[in-house]
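Quick one:
INPUT:
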């Protein structure tokens, strides 16, 4: 079904420290091989905050020799999220800065409240986005605009984020402060009835195809399609269509 991973480090605005990264990595690792998982939603349990980025208080105590390995760990953890075989949705109900936005960029779909604030602000600290931001932002909104946002360390709200293609859906925030999460849940429920094997190979085909030329991409699509042909679910889909009933897919 739908799995929700909630960040809850309220005293530090969900800032990414060594311990939180370790917990995230462990959670993602457990989800990788769980065939019952159909969609993963990343959200915050802290009102008004999605994730404030790296924990700068912890960073200030690090020796310069430790910084590189910490950033590598953050990049690897966020990459593990991006490589989850099932659809992932980031529900951004509050501020997502630096590593927080990089975390959201690693998800397949982003939903945000209109009041949410988002930005890659690392250049303000004389560093650059180091957990995928310089690569995923241009792939999401285009090279020129990504450069502008990173060079200026500009922060955008949900409405502007939607207009530039940074997020897929923008919603008005509600009194509970979880409007983006509710929209993400509704989206996840739209995914649930579809064939689980098909969902996984569709994601694989799109992800791999986006990194290559069209001819190679079409070959990837062909190879991915071939994985669905021998499945019991494909036969069930045809049978359900013939019998005019909802299919009962088992991911086989």
């Amino acid at each position: 079904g739908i799995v929700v991973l909630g960040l809850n480090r309220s005293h530090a605005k969900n800032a990414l420290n060594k311990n939180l990264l370790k917990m995230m990595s462990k959670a993602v690792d457990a989800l990788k091989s769980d065939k019952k998982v159909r969609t993963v939603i990343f959200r915050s349990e802290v009102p008004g905050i999605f994730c404030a980025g790296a924990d700068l208080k912890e960073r200030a105590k690090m020796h310069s020799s430790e910084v590189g390995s910490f950033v590598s760990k953050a990049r690897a953890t966020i990459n593990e999220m991006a490589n989850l075989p099932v659809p992932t949705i980031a529900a951004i109900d509050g501020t997502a800065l630096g590593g927080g936005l990089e975390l959201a960029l690693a998800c397949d779909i982003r939903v945000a409240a209109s009041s949410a604030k988002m930005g890659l602000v690392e250049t303000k600290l004389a560093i650059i986005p180091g957990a995928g931001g310089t690569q995923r932002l241009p792939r999401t909104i285009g090279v020129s605009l990504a450069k502008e946002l990173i060079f200026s360390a500009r922060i955008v709200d949900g409405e502007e984020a939607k207009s530039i293609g940074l997020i897929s859906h923008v919603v008005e925030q509600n009194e509970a402060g979880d409007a983006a999460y509710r929209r993400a849940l509704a989206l996840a429920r739209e995914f649930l009835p579809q064939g689980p094997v098909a969902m996984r190979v569709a994601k694989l085909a799109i992800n791999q195809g986006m990194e290559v030329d069209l001819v190679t991409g079409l070959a990837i699509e062909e190879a991915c399609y071939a994985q669905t042909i021998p499945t019991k679910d494909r036969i069930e889909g045809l049978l359900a269509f013939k019998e005019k009933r909802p299919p009962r897919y088992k991911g086989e």
